[in-house]
Here is the input.
Amino acid sequence: MKQMHITETVLRDAQQSLIATRMPFEDFEAVLDEMDQAGYHSIECWGGATFDSCLRYLNEDPWERLRKIKAHMKNTKLQMLLRGQNLLGYHHYSDDTVRRFVRKSVENGMDIIRIFDALNDMRNIQVAVDECRKAGGHAQGCICYTISPIHNLEMFVSLGMQIEEMGCHSLCIKDMAGIMSPKECFDLVTALRENIQLPIYVHTHATTGLGYMTYLKAAEAGAAGIDCATSCFSGGTSQPATESVVYALSQLGYHCGVDAQKLNRINNFFLPVKDKFSENGMFDPYVLSTKTDALIYQIPGGMLSNLVAQLKAQNAIDRLEEVLDETPRVRAELGYPPLVTPLSQMVGVQATVNVLLGERYKSIGKEIKSYIRGEYGKAPGTIDAGLAQSVLGDEKPMTGRYAETLPAEYEEAKAHLGDRARCEEDVLSYIAFPQQAEQFFARRERTFTASYSFKEVG
Here is the structure.
């Protein structure tokens, strides 16, 4: 019988896609032991937007959250998503910070680190991969899947070979917009298996309605594993449903390793959690609808939600179609970067500004300027000459790794925080998200002081 590994995403990408990563630890703590016994290959529970959300919205220490999840996982690997040199933030950090962060992630319980670069510039994942291996973690390198005149099978296979050469343990095809068709998936997995020896995992979303079919073709082509979400947190901008995919694959002769009864109990646990977020308005039914427009605009579901929110805030939601039309033009002029964090946000904001100001590139975002200067890595294609000239003037874009020009951040951050930082993890939280971390440390100190005073009075 053929093997198919299942990664469950409800604790990270599913809730990030559907409820903006607002699920606190207390909402799922009681089901962790059941999840550990379900037979998943891994549970994606950290990275992505979870770190930021813990500090900004949930008043949780993200490192403590990871340790508490790990305490329940005796049989199942934990998995996270890391943005290469961006870590979990939106700009590049020094190599020293990347190494410290990756090492601490493994020390605090992380098993598999899925590492990607938004531009598929593999120089930007090398340090994270190297440190993950040194720390004893499983390094999974990513190909960010996208469609453009310059992205093709040959390019993706070349990226796969680079991932193998740098020592990754496995490879993930990351289809963040759900635009990879069943045929494209079958052809890509097949081509990669013919050229590299790494196990190949496939990640997609149900956004366009292709996800279930794409996973079936991934299995036929010999993929080692796929990402799914427990059914009440599946569909739409999330992943295909775990139960449905497992049911179909099992009938086709694949052993997925999971217990169907336990999957049902896990979903039953999350049903009232979903209801809570539906009642408070965080779970918007809009994100569950199939959006075939993504096949035209290639805009991931999360990016589309951000565009809608931005336009509503400007009382300009009636101009959404103009922004959707403008987005592919901006992307083409920037050399066809894949629309994944942080490039998806950058391209979307620039398209919105172009439309609302009524003049293209009248105002150019600072992140876009940094991108054009080469600070995010090498653009996949050629940046529009006029746009590059307006930003660079007579300068030449950077050709080396931007991270190599950055000084180590740790010691200065540690000195700035003083006694507010209780450990190395606190310093790393501050480096990643300075304002949110300081606010969290202040709340933590107030809580500790209040608790201590109560005990003294008692």
User: Anything to note?
Assistant: Strands lie at 2-3, 5-8, 42-47, 77-82, 112-115, 138-144, 170-174, 200-203, 225-228, 254-255. Confidence is low (pLDDT under 50) at residues 453-458. The longest helix spans residues 434-457. The chain has 20 helices and ten strands.
